[in-house]
Amino acid sequence: MAWKTGTSPGSDMLAATAIAQYVLTIGDRDTSFLMHPTVMAGWRDESGFLQAVAAEVPVIGLGLDQLAEEAEDDDADEITPSGTSYTLTPARQTGQMEVHGLFNALDGQIDMERLALALFLGGQRRLMAQVAALFPSITAQVGSTGVALSWSVLKSAVDTNHAAGSRGIQVAMLEDKQWQDVSGDALTLGGAIEHQPEMRGFMGGSQGYSYKGRFLNGDLDIFTADSSIITTVGGGADYSGCVFGPEAFGMLTRAPVPDPSVVNAMQMGWMRAELDRYARKDKTAVVTTGYSAAAIAQNGAATEVISAV
In the chain, which residue ranges form alpha helices assigned H by DSSP? Predict the structure, then answer.
């Protein structure tokens, strides 16, 4: 993103205003979905055995794949992978914002940290999109093409995952329109479907842009995202949401190795931000780079939820 100035200082957009608006534009798209324990259960960091460009991860879970019961005095069986595995292949995620020198002259020094934070939030949304892109590849499916999503259909996705052996809190990631349909349907059924009692809220309300609350006596947390995150299927006729458990997806994030020759650098989560100065053009670019990957770990721990756009 490049910001350019006009010919008159009075017509120039002040730098602080530009930064605040850009941070708001990205920041109003909440990425708390990535911090949910069910989602983080499959998150691999930079440590351990994931050192290759493409790393195969064996699956030994306590939900879909459980330890075997042994009789008294019998030798313990050797624990081996369940026969499933998935591969994480990190891809480079990067972005930059350029600030021209006139902004600094008009409004003081640009806050590069805020620019880097805005770009990091963009990286978080990119990781959410990588996970959402996997939803159409899930085998189990509920909902009907061209039909609005209903509460009973969403609940059946939770039941399907539990029947398959998925344990822990289930997470639903829905497109905004899917949430509008399912919450409206719940209210039409004869009253609001309550959150857990201590939240003292109802399904028609909103806990935030993305997180909508916990339902089914603590079994289901619902998040939403816009159409830039959630994939469409059926030639664009339907949204592909998903309900999944902690065994469903694996993710990997990795920051670049610091270059000792770079002085103006900072760490933003799994991304690294650096300043790139173009003296001849009197501008400075804030560049963020990170690596991320997502893959289906155990297909049976998730159910795709399709409904009309």
Answer: 15-27, 37-40, 101-107, 112-132, 151-163, 176-188
